[in-house]
């Protein structure tokens, strides 16, 4: 433990942490004044066509497959199924904070995905899209904008672009599996929120490491039930056998309210350390024990400090559900201040 505390103290003293705290203080102000919401979205068209409405709804549940998924280069040597990932993705400032270790780790994991996994498409769950308490929404749009669902940042943040495309075919595969599992679904057309693109622009740099496959974003429920989200993952597990990668994007610990304290003291909060470790134990448990252990996380005494609201935690429950009988593996643990940037992978890579 002294060695751990010493390492944490060294990290906190470093230059990058000072940069992180300054940049994230902007995010804290934003959270205080205007919590994240789906009600006001500014979108940019990244494909040089007329601007589309940010979100439209189609609840007709058509069974026909509209459009087609492009045929990217798949991994012909992958004998079984794609793994599942959970990525720690921070606020918009994190895509410019190149000195922070999370930037390098996202880049490394992105390269692993494009060079080793080589998925045909990506289905992603973000902390910043919650539909109804009993309804899951799926983006069925082929042309996908990005959403600037954040406030108070310098003007150039609202000029960022992340070229990407959707797939109605993959979206319909998601819908078919969810409806077969008894899940109420709704088709919508919307852009990628920053909970996806602000991390993907680092992991899958459009110039250095482009993803080049369709991205279909799926909402969370607007509730705090970890088991309902775990079951969403279970319903989608079969997509992995079709070369489709499932990614949860959130944070293992996410308490922006305590950033004022960490700005003043440079302290990593005790609950950050304890919850990060507790989640690691649950995620890497035997698959038959994993759901119960992960469900119990929200009953821990440190849970509400680690997650005053749980939307940043729920994506890892989806990822774990989609893992099936595959073991969870910690790729990286990095508790810092009142956040944890940890990453996980479920399932193995082809050698």
Give a verbal description of the structure.
The protein is of the alpha/beta class. It has helices at residues 2-13, 15-33, 101-117, 168-180, 194-203, 226-236, 259-265, 270-283, 287-295, 303-306, 314-322; strands at residues 43-44, 56-58, 84-88, 121-130, 135-139, 146-147, 184-189, 215-220, 244-250, 253-254, 328-332, 335-336, 339-340, 343-346. The longest helix has 19 residues, at 15-33. It is globular. The protein starts with a helix and ends in a 5-residue tail after the last strand.
Question: How would you spell out the order of helices and strands?
Answer: HHEEEHEEEHEHEHEEHHHHHEEEE
Helix/strand-derived category reads alpha/beta
| Uncertain stretches of 5 or more adjacent residues | 1-78
DSSP helical segment count: 11
Got a strand count? 14
Residue share in β-strands: 15-25%
Overall mean pLDDT score? Answer: 83
Q: Tell me the overall shape.
A: globular
Outline of this structure?
With 351 residues, the protein is of the alpha/beta class.
Secondary structure elements and pairings:
Elements: H1 2-13, H2 15-33, E1 43-44, E2 56-58, E3 84-88, H3 101-117, E4 121-130, E5 135-139, E6 146-147, H4 168-180, E7 184-189, H5 194-203, E8 215-220, H6 226-236, E9 244-250, E10 253-254, H7 259-265, H8 270-283, H9 287-295, H10 303-306, H11 314-322, E11 328-332, E12 335-336, E13 339-340, E14 343-346
Parallel strand pairs: 3-9, 4-8, 4-9, 5-7
Antiparallel strand pairs: 1-6, 2-7, 3-14, 10-13, 11-14, 12-13
